[in-house]
Amino acid sequence: TKALPIIAIPTTAGTGTEMDPWTVITHETAQEKIGFGCQRTFPTLSIVDPELMVSIPPHLTAYQGFDAFFHAAEGFIANCATPISDLYALEAIRLIYKYLPVAVADGKNLKARAKIAWASTLAGMVEATSSCTSEHSLEHAMSAYYPQLPHGAGLIALSEAYFETFRHDCTKRYMKMAEVMTQKKSNRSSDFIDALITLQKECKVHPVKLSEFGIQPEDFPKFLQNARDTMGGLFTLDPRPITDEEILHVFEKSYK
Questions:
Q1: Is 13 a member of any domain?
Q2: First vs last Cα of the chain: how many Å apart?
Q3: Closest CA to 218 of 160, 140, 145
């Protein structure tokens, strides 16, 4: 019924939880990694200082930045997206596409760090006004079993196959994301996936494959079941229901 007031001082630009109520509770022995939040877990005060982020190494800067990116992109295609979450999402996507490669290349570039910190905060605001989709459920299942897998790396590995799954369901939204990323007119939904791969390459995180982290193909069915059992709510927010066969295909395409 109550919670102590939370003061949030992020030292990474990724979760955006300084602006949303969401937490993650990891139960190591049960191999569960579950998102939780309510009105009482919104921070009372948040202090976002990019100077606290300049020492993050390049690969973690990229992983964290992509976590923020997918908060925004998933929130933009979620079936609960709102006009206000769309504004936050598109600006976060624009900023990350422009400035994340700069922050990865030069961690001491304070302008780039500030822009990415603001983008992460905006993506947290997306999380407070829309939601992640099942991509996050799938990644939580993977890193519940393989805690050495960084969350952002898992999302990057899944992303191309995952977003391809919904390409024909969100044509206009994919085109809109592509346009704010490339600043060019988009004529096809695959422009977004092309821009996503370009961003990954510029951040030196393409390709990331699940096999690099010790994951085996025989793990895929238990990942699927874990995701549906522990983070099943996000599947209801996908653009359309994703089938078990499609999920297994995403894992297979992301493996090697």
A1: no
A2: 47
A3: 145
Residue 50 lies in a domain: no
Total domains, the chain = 1
For the chain, give percent helix, strand, coil, nearest 5. 60, 5, 30
Cα torsion 138, 197, 88, 20 to 10°: value is 30
Per the domain annotation, does 20 fall within a domain? no
Closest to 191 (Cα-Cα) out of 201, 202, 176, 203: 176
User: Residue 86, Cβ neighbours under 10 Å: how many?
Assistant: 18
Q: Which domain holds residue 233?
A: 55-253
Q: Tokens for 156?
A: 């990057």
The domain that holds 217 is classified in CATH as: 1.20.1090.10
How far is the C-alpha of 111 from the C-alpha of 91, rounded, in Å?
Answer: 16
pTM: 0.97
- How long, in residues, is the chain? 256
pLDDT at position 18 is 97
Buried residues in 10-24 as b, exposed as e (16+ CB within 10 A): bebbbbbbbbbbbeb
Positive or negative, the CA dihedral 161, 104, 20, 145 is: positive
pLDDT, averaged per 10 consecutive residues of the chain (256 residues), comes to 94 97 94 94 97 98 98 98 98 98 98 98 98 98 97 98 98 98 98 98 98 98 98 98 98 97
- Which residues fall within 8 angstroms of residue 221, CB to CB, at 6 or more apart? 248
Residue 130 lies in a domain: yes
